[in-house]
């Protein structure tokens, strides 16, 4: 692996032929080398980085992109014009020496460097803060007490590194995180979401969400969670709102991690579902926030003597919409999150045997592929309900329906969700004499409902029903006019 990296560095740097320019490989690449992990990005530092980058770009026919994220150490990305995947980042060496530069970095495991010789070969690792020892001891330790003051985002990076690298935060590092947790308010929403997304994508993210909670970080990211704590629930539940939420998150995670165990024949559907986009992180975020509307809607029914949360799904959807905007989620991500929270009770209702197929299909048509996400969330939610009036039979009705629906989703349900598979279309109704407008849409919706219910199963029957509906409508209008 490192032979190819040295070859890449030689290809990029050897044409410079500038003995005065001393490059060092720094950051994650050095850490990953010491951990035996694949290296994806290569970050270099040198004096007068702008001059070096521009000179290399002219020699190598590369484009230069300047990043201004860190004004103290401007970064220049060189992109091979012939291969956009081939790039190199060169940053300005801070304070005149590699040791001084490394002192600006966040954690000891990231504060190492390797000198690069003109032929691209790598020298011995420079490790002034004991990063190699910390890797061996599987720990993450700050380089100094001011690390989080300089950049509060490093608090979330610490948790993310712990999740991705399998390293534990030292006690001193955790103490500093608690001390500076309030500074998270200073971080731009999109930067918070970028780190949180990677934490949630981890197979054991529940443990790291607990870590964030215990270190007072989670309620700084989501102040709404504070009200969820110590909020009692009714007899369907054995846990208050917040501990229930964490159990739902854990169940979601288990099902995503091991679909074969939980879904049997539907396992492939689930696996493919979570390959696309960032559904893993978004579904876990849904689990974390699905009951965010409960504290403000909590009431008490004196007749049944039960705690109520009327409308908490709607209120919760409004809250998560605000959260999504605050964290600068994309429109697609925000729509997913809001829809999941808004419909998390509805999906439980759809499992009842008396519900018509067309009623289910109306929601499925809205959700499309995300139907699978909502069904899985419902499973996690129902598994976390173990109160005295929540019976095993009550839970089993939903769980059985959910597994069956996921197992048949791609073959039996998904084909019907596309308008292309409607047995009757608007142009058909126009040929029958209908005019464009709301009336035409209503007839199409009724035919689609009949199709979903199985009352019409082919185009001939659907067209006959359409003619009947149009005729009935004309007769009704005639009687009204007379």
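Q: What amino acid sequence fits the structure above?
A:
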């Amino acid at each position: 692996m490192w032979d190819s990296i040295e070859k890449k560095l030689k290809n990029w740097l050897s044409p410079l032929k500038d003995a005065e320019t001393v490059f060092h490989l720094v950051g994650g690449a050095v850490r990953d080398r010491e951990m035996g992990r694949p290296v994806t990005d290569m970050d270099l530092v040198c004096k007068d980085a702008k001059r070096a980058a521009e000179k290399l770009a002219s020699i190598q026919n590369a484009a230069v992109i300047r990043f201004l994220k860190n004004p103290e150490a401007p970064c220049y990305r060189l992109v091979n014009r012939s291969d956009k995947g081939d790039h190199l980042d060169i940053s300005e060496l801070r304070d005149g020496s590699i040791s001084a530069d490394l002192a600006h970095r966040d954690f000891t495991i990231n504060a190492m460097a390797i000198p690069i010789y003109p032929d691209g070969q790598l020298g011995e690792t420079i490790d002034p803060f004991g990063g190699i020892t910390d890797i061996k001891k599987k720990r993450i330790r700050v380089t100094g007490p001011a690390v989080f003051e300089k950049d509060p985002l490093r608090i979330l990076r610490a948790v993310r590194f712990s999740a991705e690298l399998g390293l534990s935060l030292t006690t001193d590092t955790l103490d500093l995180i608690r001390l500076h947790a309030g500074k998270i308010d200073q971080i731009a929403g999109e930067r918070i979401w970028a780190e949180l997304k990677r934490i949630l994508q981890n197979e054991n993210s529940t443990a790291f969400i607990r870590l964030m909670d215990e270190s007072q970080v989670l309620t700084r990211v989501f102040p709404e969670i504070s009200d969820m704590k110590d909020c009692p629930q009714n007899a369907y539940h054995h846990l208050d709102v917040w501990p229930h939420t964490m159990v739902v998150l854990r169940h979601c995670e288990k099902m995503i991690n091991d679909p074969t165990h939980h879904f049997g024949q539907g396992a492939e559907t689930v696996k493919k579902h979570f390959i696309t986009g960032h559904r893993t992180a978004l579904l876990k975020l849904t689990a974390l926030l699905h009951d965010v509307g409960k504290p403000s809607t909590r009431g008490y029914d004196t007749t049944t003597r039960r705690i109520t949360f009327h409308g908490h799904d709607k209120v919760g959807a409004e809250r998560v919409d605000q959260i999504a905007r605050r964290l600068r989620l994309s429109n697609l991500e925000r729509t997913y999150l809001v829809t999941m929270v808004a419909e998390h009770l509805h999906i439980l209702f759809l499992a009842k045997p008396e519900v018509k197929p067309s009623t289910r299909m109306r929601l499925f048509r809205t959700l499309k592929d995300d139907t699978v996400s909502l069904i899985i969330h419902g499973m996690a939610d129902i598994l976390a309900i173990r109160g005295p009036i929540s019976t095993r039979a009550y839970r089993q009705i939903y769980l059985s329906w959910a597994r069956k629906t996921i197992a048949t989703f791609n073959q039996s349900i998904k084909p019907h969700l596309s308008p292309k598979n409607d047995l009757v279309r608007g142009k058909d109704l126009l040929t029958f004499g209908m005019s464009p407008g709301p009336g035409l849409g209503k007839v199409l919706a009724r035919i689609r409902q009949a199709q979903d219910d199985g009352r019409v199963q082919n185009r001939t029957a659907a067209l006959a029903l359409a003619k009947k509906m149009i005729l009935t409508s004309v007769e009704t209008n005639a009687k009204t006019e007379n």
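Q: And what stands out in the fold?
A: The chain is about 55% helix and 10% strand.
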